[in-house]
Prior knowledge:
- By secondary structure, this protein is an alpha/beta fold.
- The chain is built from 9 helices and 16 strands.
- A hairpin with a 4-residue loop joins strand 1 and strand 2.
- One 2-acetamido-2-deoxy-beta-D-glucopyranose binds at residues 35, 54, 56, 78, 80, 102.
- Keywords: Leucine-rich repeat, Membrane, Repeat, Signal, Transmembrane, Transmembrane helix.
- InterPro entries: Cys-rich_flank_reg_C, Leu-rich_rpt, Leu-rich_rpt_typical-subtyp, LRR_dom_sf, Wnt_signaling_inhibitor.
Amino acid sequence: xxxxxxxxxxxxxxxxxxxxxxxxxxxxxxxxxxxxxxxxxxxxxxxxxxxxxxxxxxxxxxxxxxxxxxxxxxxxxxxxxxxxxxxxxxxxxxxxxxxxxxxxxxxxxxxxxxxxxxxxxxxxxxxxxxxxxxxxxxxxxxxxxxxxxxxxxxxxxxxxxxxxxxxxxxxxxxxxxxxxxxxxxxxxxxxxxxxxxxxxxxxxxxxxxxxxxxxxxxxxxxxxxxxxxxxxxxxxxxxxxxxxxxxxxxxxxxxxxxxxxxxxxxxxxxxxxxxxxxxxxxxxxxxxxxxxxxxxxxxxxxxxxxxxxxxxxxxxxxxxxxxxxxxxxxxxxxxxxxxxxxxxxxxxxxxxxxxxxxxxxxxxxxxxxxxxxxxxxxxxxxxxxxxxxxxxxx
Length: 394
Ligand SMILES: *[C@@H]1O[C@H](CO)[C@@H](O)[C@H](O)[C@H]1NC(C)=O
Ligand SMILES: *[C@@H]1O[C@H](CO)[C@@H](O)[C@H](O)[C@H]1NC(C)=O
Ligand SMILES: *[C@@H]1O[C@H](CO)[C@@H](O)[C@H](O)[C@H]1NC(C)=O
Ligand SMILES: *[C@@H]1O[C@H](CO)[C@@H](O)[C@H](O)[C@H]1NC(C)=O
Ligand SMILES: *[C@@H]1O[C@H](CO)[C@@H](O)[C@H](O)[C@H]1NC(C)=O
Ligand SMILES: *[C@@H]1O[C@H](CO)[C@@H](O)[C@H](O)[C@H]1NC(C)=O
């Protein structure tokens, strides 16, 4: 009797002690809940049989290697809203059965390349909503996705991270990804390779980004997702002629755009809230114009190209000139001198022919001419026509 009581007391104290201070442990679900408990680090005394760990609203700035040691039965870990700035190497690697990792609303500045490495790659869901501090963290994340060998990851949520562009091949290390959420970012374009390597995809959410249109290249990239549920709503689509490709694509593509009827124009003002899908080329007022624009563009391109070629030729020419500057100088001097000689000769003759007085001399007095020529030659070597003495007009 006494022994049983002692045993019961021991058990109670052990059970109470095994739930961390300011946390709640609900035995049946083996859930540990530490919400807004002003924790500065992951508590040490978490029951080793916990399967769900929810630590939210605290001030845990760093997750280290040993943060979760001995918790190999945790399958769900929610670390939302803790102001986490840094995730160290192998921060989760003792969580051998971790399937779902929620890191929403943090300020990740540093993500170690091996932050998400867990032996056996058990992770199926990773959520980083509004969690990356800036664009540098995106580079970190990309590296961590590659090094983490997350081959079983099915869901990735990167919503609300102010992404403008996604590096090509970013998701390629996630071959089994099925759900990719990129809502509420600032994405402006999709390129060849943006979504390469995720052939198992079932859902791609691009709602609430900054797409004004989707280029040909982007449409071709999306075309690979024939069975995928694609969401493109709440983007500021511009409904001018350029939108025609997109409008046609929406009507004809085999890609399933889940919210195709809820894509609206934002600009120009006259077409605001008009459905993008319903817009025909006629409604956009661009029959014939499209072709014109294309030729115009190709003409512009060829002008630019011509300009570049000419510029290049010019530069090569100048360079050659520069290299041969001594030779050219000599050559020019030679030519200059030769010209000067020739010109002097011409000048001389011109002086004789153009002076009416001299002309009269040469015509009127044929006999006296040899004499005159001699005399003039003598004068013009050092005198101008104005200086010819007046007695020349005989
Ligand atoms: C983890 O779960 C397994 C299977 O449910 C169980 O056998 C094991 O005792 C648990 N480990 C701990 C430390 O509770
Ligand atoms: C994680 O915790 C936050 C804050 O308590 C909660 O709002 C959210 O629903 C939880 N997410 C999951 C997937 O459990
Ligand atoms: C991101 O923030 C970190 C820390 O403040 C800073 O060192 C880094 O230069 C920032 N990167 C960008 C691209 O702004
Ligand atoms: C979108 O993301 C921004 C920045 O992360 C956030 O402040 C805002 O609350 C989010 N909006 C919605 C509707 O989720
Ligand atoms: C996309 O890029 C790949 C190589 O990265 C190339 O083989 C392919 O032709 C490109 N596709 C288009 C449509 O440009
Ligand atoms: C798309 O289809 C709708 C109805 O099926 C039609 O009204 C609209 O004109 C079509 N748009 C284009 C660009 O073909």
